[in-house]
Amino acid sequence: MAKSYEIEHPIKAFGWAARDTSGVLSPFNFSRRATGENDVQFKVLYCGICHSDLHMLKNEWDNSKYPIVPGHEIVGVVTEVGSKVEKVKVGDNVGVGVLVGSCRKCDSCTNDLEQYCPSHIGTYSTTYSDGTTTYGGYSDLMVANEHFVLRWPENLPMEAAPLLCAGITTYSPLRYFGIDKPGLNIGVVGLGGLGHMAVKFAKAFGCNVTVISTSFNKKDEAIKHLGANSFLISHDQEQMQGATSTLDGIIDTVSAEHPIAPLLNILKPHGKLVMVGAPPKPLELPVFPLLMGRKIIGGSIIGGMKETQEMLDFAAKHKITPEVEVVSMDYVNIAMERLSKSDVKYRFVLDVGKTLKVD
């Protein structure tokens, strides 16, 4: 018989968990493994709420393991380190993102691309190498292998936790596809949690940024607040026609069904359309515009550990932080409800350190 969540590991832990597809979160006593020689234990202070948390809570991707303690944008302070840990020490600020494990041997792992390892281990609702379930950052403490722990720059506010998912998800494709060069014209489709980070990073790289949205009332926000250079309404045919062949690259952050053809038309020849949103159903792919301009459609998820550290250091240097609404732990179910209606600008962050009350 399996041990109960509270005693399967030696360290007592407390968080908020969903027990079923209702997705409703409530207090949950469980346990963490002892800090091994290569492990870092830290007190969680802040944890971002990612849209994928909502999908997982309701098992919308058919891979959820209940009970679920979500959270993969986790920032805190180190309380204990294993004897072989070299990267951080007690008292350091650290972060853990989407990954807590990978095989460390395959081509992806040996090339610092752990996110593409066939046996990568997610921070929550997956099975760890010891056979137990992983639990995320809606909790009082974390234990993780130092390889998957990031050094959190001192001048970066801890509330910027969504950099660990939304940040790296947009930074990585800009870098990998070479659409991070000064003077390039870059489009960003959608101005939500991912989109606003794509705008900030592209601007910091020196690009000219065009925001492409279905909502006209986001124009002021895009240009005046986030510094975008121009704004297009995606369903305004005249505007989109006027922008034909003007963009070197596009980061598409939209997770709903939407037409691809208009986006391909506003790319220059050799332009790249990179998908980082995850629509639930296949999109229609018109091939003719790809042929006529030798254009590319690609995809990308997060980044490896080396690149994620690079992103954090870049964000600290350029003072790039996500726009967040910090909320208390007992507000989490209301936050999820608001998130499902897109009623947040642009990311919720849980103040775990001050508001998680241990049962």
Describe this entry's structure for a reader.
The structure is a single chain. This protein has helices spanning 51-57, 107-110, 166-176, 193-204, 219-225, 237-242, 261-265, 288-293, 305-317, 332-340, 352-355; strands spanning 11-18, 25-32, 39-49, 74-81, 93-96, 99-101, 121-122, 141-145, 150-151, 185-189, 208-213, 230-233, 247-252, 267-275, 296-299, 324-327, 347-350. Helix 3 (166-176) crosses helix 4 and helix 3 (166-176) packs across helix 9 (305-317). The protein has 2 domains: 11-164 and 323-355, Medium-chain alcohol dehydrogenases, catalytic domain (Quinone Oxidoreductase, Chain A, domain 1, Alpha-Beta Complex), CATH 3.90.180.10; 167-299, NAD(P)-binding Rossmann-like Domain (Rossmann fold), CATH 3.40.50. The chain is an alpha/beta fold and 359 residues long.
